[in-house]
Write a structure and sequence with these properties.
The protein is an alpha/beta fold. The chain has helices at about 15-20, 40-45, 60-75, 95-100, 120-135, 155-160, 170-180, 205-220, 225-255, 260-290, and strands spanning about 1-10, 30-35, 50-55, 80, 105-110, 150-155, 185-190. β2 (about 30-35), α2 and β3 form a beta-alpha-beta unit.
Length: about 290
């Protein structure tokens, strides 16, 4: 059974068309209405979708977590997710399904950047490349569109992946989780429309901030030595630099730069504590990973 899940928030304008076009390629369509204040749920039901309503807006990650739970409950063989605003073309669903059906992938990402031509605005393209680089830095699998919401998952992925991130950074978290589980990730080219936004989309800068925040939390959890150690070394280096300045001033003028010296002490203390935390957390994560 092929299940399509469509997270939606105030998408009454486009949701009906997306559902009707999606139904041609899947067995069931579920819409997760994430606290919409418009008629999204009503239109979705009229279009023939099953609707799960959240009382308030919990975030895309929470909507996808609900979708994964339903996919398990229904014992879906393949699970497709796509956006509700009409940016994704449901007629391209077979591209994603094929990679799952042939066994080539456990998670298929529809990439806007693999197509020969795409209509991604320049400012979005630049922002996406930054987010791609950051997301790829925490994963051994490198992709061209880490933030794409058009994805397909195999049964193995449905039962093994978990959505820990509740917000818009869910795609980055899923990539890292799939990587940890040695799931096969494949990208296929898709098109994407940017003339159908209806005002419910998050500001691109806020979107980027939330994704970066998610990535930093993953780095903190998975690579504590990098997260704490590198900034700690940086602070120690700055502290030593100013410390030498204090010594140099004293040796030439015999005056003690008390204010600078206090800053040096603060920088060295914070830097050393940060490095120590990184080393300890790294050791603990290694013990947990090795099962000791």
């Amino acid at each position: 059974m092929i299940l399509a899940a469509i997270p939606a928030y105030n998408e009454e304008i486009a949701i009906g068309s997306v559902i009707l076009r999606t139904k041609k390629y899947v067995d069931r369509v579920i819409v997760i209405d994430d606290g919409s204040s418009d008629a999204t749920s009503i239109v979705a039901k009229m279009a023939g979708a099953e609707v799960i309503q959240h009382e308030k807006n919990l975030g895309k990650g929470a909507a996808l977590k609900c979708a994964f739970r339903e996919a398990k409950r229904l014992d879906a063989d393949i699970f497709i997710c796509l956006d509700a605003d009409g940016q994704h073309n449901p007629d391209e669903i077979p591209r994603l399904l094929d990679a799952i059906k042939t066994g080539d992938a456990d998670m298929v990402i529809g990439s806007r950047f693999l197509a020969a031509t795409n209509s991604v605005p320049v400012y979005r393209r630049i922002g996406q490349q930054v987010l791609n680089s950051l997301t790829n830095s925490i994963s051994t699998t490198k992709v061209t569109d880490s933030q794409s919401g058009f994805r397909a998952f195999s049964k193995k992925a449905i039962y093994s992946l978990s959505c820990k991130e509740m917000g818009i950074g869910i795609e980055s978290q899923l990539q890292r989780s799939a990587d940890d589980l040695n799931l096969k990730i494949v990208e296929v080219p898709i098109s994407c429309r940017y003339d159908v936004e209806h005002g419910s989309k998050m500001n691109p800068f806020n979107h980027g901030f939330h994704v970066i925040n998610t990535i930093l939390r993953i780095v903190e959890e998975r690579r504590p030595l990098l997260f704490f150690g590198v900034p700690g070394l940086f602070l120690v280096a700055i502290g030593l630099f100013f410390g030498f300045q204090v010594v140099d001033i004293y040796s030439t003028t015999h005056e003690f730069a008390l204010g600078t010296a206090l800053i040096v002490i603060l920088l060295l203390m914070v830097g050393i504590i940060s490095i120590f935390n990184g080393i300890m957390l790294h050791a603990i994560s290694k013990l947990i990973k090795n099962g000791h």
